Amino acid sequence: MLRFALTTNSGKPHAAGVRSAMAERVTTADVYRRLGELTARVDALIEHQARADAASERSRAATAARLDAMAVQQQAMDARLGRAEEALVKIKPFVDDANKWRQRGIGALWVFGMICTAAGAVLASTWREMVAALRGI
């Protein structure tokens, strides 16, 4: 006959299966019963791990599907961006010409403004002489 007692590291009786701090007499049937319990627990752990693995695989498959969908969307966006860039390349010469004409127009307005300013200054400085000349007629 075997004699043993389940204890923890501190020497206290283990909570699972020991009724007293004293060693108890164990029969072969008890060993087989406890071995069966351990086997059942290991089987339960294996089954639990298998369920967790299956859930993990489903999650990975869902993530892969979402990534595939995002890749398709990215390709579609890249294609649209490529078409937009082609259109911009075709429009760029016209935009450049419009900018050149706008700059020329601003320059012409500046020159016209300077000419009008000079004419106004000449008119203001000679106004008395012009009015006197017109009254003399």
Could you please describe the fold and organization of this structure?
It is a single chain. By secondary structure, the chain is mainly α. It has one domain. Helix content is 78%, strand content 4%. A two-stranded antiparallel sheet has the order 1-2. It is rod-shaped, with a radius of gyration of 49 Å. It starts with a strand and ends with a helix.
Task: Give me the secondary-structure topology.
Elements: E1 2-4, E2 24-26, H1 28-125, H2 127-135
Antiparallel strand pairs: 1-2
| Biggest beta-sheet profile | 2 strands, antiparallel
Give the fraction of residues assigned to helices. over 70%
Output the strand order for the largest sheet: 1-2
Based on helices, strands and strand pairing, what is the structural class?
mainly alpha
Tell me the radius of gyration.
49 Å
SSE ordering: EEHH
Number of domains in the coordinates?
1
Amino- and carboxy-terminal Cα gap:
153 Å
Shape: rod-shaped
What is the strand content? under 5%
Using DSSP, what is the number of strands? Answer: 2
Q: Give average pLDDT, whole number.
A: 86
Specify the number of helices: 2
Instruction: Detail the poorly predicted runs.
Output: none
